[in-house]
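Appendix B, example 12.
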Amino acid sequence: MGGQMSAANHKHDLELKKFVLSKGLQLMIYAFLAIGVATLVIALVANQQERLWTSYLVAFFYFSGLALGGLFFVAINNLSKAGWSVSIRRLSEGMTSFIPFILIGGLLLVAGFKYLFPWTNAEVIANNPLIQLKTAYLNTSSFVIRLVIFCAGWFYFRHKIVGNSLNQDQNGNVELTHKNVGYSIAFVLFFAISFSLFSVDLIMSLMPTWYSTIFGIYCFAGLFQASLAALAILIVFLRRSGFVKGYITHEHQHDVVKFTKGFTVFWAYIAFSQFMLIWYANIPEETEYYIMRSQNGWMGISVLLLIFRFIVPFIALLPKGLKRNDSHVVLVSSLILIMQYVDIYWMVYPNFNDGHLAFGLWEIGIFIGFTGLFMFTLFNFFKNNSLVPLKDPRLSEAINHHVTY
């Protein structure tokens, strides 16, 4: 209450309500979870193992990225001591609620290893000297150990950074803000290494003969662009629902959309850099990756990524007025989130089904299930915590934030 009164000295139209999930949205979430579980069971019974685990991998990597992107957004604002983003920080913190499920989901993925990763097949290893040289890294035990270490680290930093933020709501201790600067610096350093290797383990090792030195950066660029798009949608949703009147405004939306536009360009830059270097060097072990994605219908997907992940969002997010148009922001952000799925699908699926396109009920059902799980963790976090960190010492700066360009 003290933080709210202090903030009220600057604004007279502040109103913060406790988050309540509508009955319709609750039913939708439970329906999504049921669809996901049913799809998993039916696929196992029908012995559709390859389609099950490829669709599982895409959805798992997608929502793991959104959760980690939320924590990364919180961390970079903490370490830069940004004040403008304080009132929207809790939204990103909510996205991190999925992080504990990354370990659970990753360990469940081990059951599908033999359907996904060639380096688990002794015959494939015996017939390929290049894979033999990588077996010290590419083996099930090492994979699980790395996964546990990564997830333990992400959970630890989430526990400290988000935990300090929530504790400050109770005691108003300014020292917690300063402590989070140190934790955020450590997280960003850990995240840079862990997520790069996480991307190599789950995605790049699907084709163990191929490698790219900037693959982790490519995956990060897509992760953060999609996370910012999800944050923009949450800002519109909560502001228009009347839960955070005066605390979250079009000014915050404007800056988040600017970040989204910036990382749209960054994704395109990294994507082009990876393609250009491989094309120019023309090394068979590297070019096979893009050759596979130019045949059997994949060229169309490749072009769609260029158009709808870069060109359309970049142009659509340029005008200042459209950054403040709720419907426009939700539409473009939704497109980015769709293309994030397409991008991961494009990285995973050419390695299966003899390189041909495959999309159907298995992919839809598993993704819907993960969507329900992500929404459940997100909205449960909102329900149990204040939507705005009222006792953060920089809250008044966030409330009075004004964009000039």
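The chain has a mean pLDDT of 94. Residues 57 and 372 are 16 Å apart (CA to CA).
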